[in-house]
């Protein structure tokens, strides 16, 4: 019996060591270059970001054929909604040349534009591409009341076959989304636009 136990132990250890490791992914970039954008004459506060419940999982969720696969060994480093918010916050800060106030107390001075993003689609197809459908709302408090504008964007981005490439494609799609919000936000605050720009679906 003792000999059998000794023989079984290496096999058990080998089985444990052969288990696939967990891989963690993030939508935030490693480092942001210095912003070259013209600084906005207002500040912004990115509110909470919502994501579809189907993909709001610790694991990456991808399309495989006609079905959906939840990848047990491929995980987000933080909840997906937080990952999306962090990436958008960094991209908007870069594009607008100003920092995201988030939930910080509002001081007097420059107006604060509140931005809310509702991701209604967050599709991933390794080897094909990713798609994001987003509704985004701009709110600006003024002495006469609050002005509100809601727009929609559909963004597709090709993706490689690896899961890291899928994540990178989503990262690029979020940067594109921030790039679409930026000119509308500037014009909205300056009252030169009251509707979404041409090209927004």
From TrEMBL:
<feature type="domain" description="ABC-type transport auxiliary lipoprotein component">
    <location>
        <begin position="26"/>
        <end position="181"/>
    </location>
</feature>
<feature type="signal peptide">
    <location>
        <begin position="1"/>
        <end position="20"/>
    </location>
</feature>
<dbReference type="Pfam" id="PF03886">
    <property type="entry name" value="ABC_trans_aux"/>
</dbReference>
<dbReference type="InterPro" id="IPR005586">
    <property type="entry name" value="ABC_trans_aux"/>
</dbReference>
<protein>
    <recommendedName>
        <fullName>ABC-type transport auxiliary lipoprotein component domain-containing protein</fullName>
    </recommendedName>
</protein>
<keyword id="KW-0732">Signal</keyword>
